[in-house]
Amino acid sequence: MSKVLMSDSIHANRCCAFRCTGLLRLWIRCPYPLALAVGQLSYRTKRDLLLCVVICQTLVAQPVEYFVSPSGNPTNSGSATSPWPSVGFALANATGGDLITLLPGTYAEPVVVELSGTAGQPTVIRSQRKWEAIILGSPTHGIYVADGVTNVVIDGLQVVSAAIDGVKVGSYATVRNCWIHHSGRQGVSAHRTRGTMLERNLIEHNGTDPVFDHGIYLSGTNAIVRGNVIRWNQRYGCQFYADAPASTAECQFYNNLVYGNRNALTVWSAAGQTNYVFNNTLWSDRYVLGGNGGILCASNNILLGPGVRRIFNAENGAEIRADYNLISATGRRHGPHDVMVVQPGLVNPDRGLFWLRADSPARAAAAAGIVPPVDFFGREQQRGLDVGAFQYRPHLTRDTRVLDPSPARPDYWLPEVTTAP
Predict the structure, then answer these.
(1) Where are the domains of the chain?
(2) What counts of helices (H) and strands (E) characterise the chain?
(3) pLDDT, tens digit, for every residue of 143-181?
(4) pLDDT higher at 203 or 47
(5) d(Cα 199, Cα 377) in Å, to the nearest integer?
(6) Which segments of 51-113 are extended strands (E)?
């Protein structure tokens, strides 16, 4: 067995799947002769062959799930009741496309992922309960997806005090529902990637260098960054950067709340490349939205800041195509449908409550043709009437919380918020 602690049943099932897969491949390559041969088989052999095909289709499509606990043991089986002792041990004994579930507890180890999944069956590392599996104090990256490794999902983990980046991922990776904070450098990084997805994360207090450290630091194509809260990071909340000869292109940044960072968002790309920023709430007292080279399309955003230095900042020939944004009166109207305001009509930004009030000028001010496929909470939506990261919801106007995170109550995605009308 290639995996020393794989249970006999799992090993037998996989061997059966491999045999069946080989038979199916033979059928595909020479279907007519094999069909003649099958026609001459006995009923029992035909029945067994059909059963093998069914088993193959079932087993190959199902990932194997392993469990990890800080109190686990290397002689355990990796089941929920007999977990392994570390994430590294699980990765050494898993296969690409498997599911690794972390039970609550603190994991004082760097996590290095070298197992690629597939589009249909990614390699998944997740917390059994959101934010209660804690990757703590890594001397390097908190979670490092090795160069060239693709189709990896990181879900629901808390990553704390990594010396370098909290999470570094590759192409076709997804980081969702994570709390990533107090990293030495970037909160999340992705370099020259394709199809990166960052969604519904809380990314805060990352970086030590006020020039080079950001909440998110990303380059590549077709990335989607949505539904995140990005706050109190050293430089930018998020920087898309151009890394020659690669570039940042066709990336989408929407439904994000970005505040408390030195600057909110900047997008660097090569001339002729286009990226999209829409339905965000961006707040900064320095630069709110910047473009460096390329074309930046920006609509349906709330762009604010007390004494902000500049709402839009275009450098190195960048073309910012902006309209239907709600802008601080200290800024400058960029498009004919931009709304200039002194009071944006938010519930209580000092408490992190950027929900819209009933009297907010952001209501019914959005470009109707620009609708994110999901809202901030991840719910599908068919239309979006309001500018900013949050559509108006009457029950949210009564919210009085101070939205500071807690593993016991992971704020911003509380059930009473996401299920209320």
Answers:
(1) 8-60, 185-421
(2) 5, 33
(3) 999 999 999 999 999 999 999 999 999 999 999 999 999
(4) 203
(5) 10
(6) 65-68, 99-102, 105-107, 111-113
Q: Give the long-range contacts of residues 2-8, CB within 8 A, separation 24 or more.
A: 3/93, 3/94, 3/95, 4/93, 5/74, 5/75, 5/76, 5/77, 5/78, 5/84, 5/93, 6/93, 7/77
- Compute CA distances 122 → 117, 151, 152, 295, whole Å: 4, 5, 5, 33
Q: Which two tokens stand for residue 64?
A: 């194997």
Is omega for the bond preceding 245 within 30 degrees of 0, making it cis? yes
Whether 76 and 84 have beta carbons less than 8 Å apart is answered as: yes
Burial (CB count <10 Å: 0-12, 13-18, 19+), residue 10: middle
Q: What's this model's pTM, rounded to 2 decimal places?
A: 0.86
Q: Which amino acid is at 382?
A: Q
Which residue's entry shows tokens 């009166």? 329
SS (H, E, C) 327-396: EECCCCCCCCCCEEECCCCEEEHHHCEEEECCCCCCCCCCCCCCCCCECCCCCECCCCCCCCCCCCCHHH
With contact defined as beta carbons under 8 Å apart, do 337 and 301 qualify? no
Count other C-beta atoms under 10 Å from residue 348's C-beta: 15
Give residue for tokens 């969702």.
Answer: 176
Tokens standing for residue 105: 């507890």
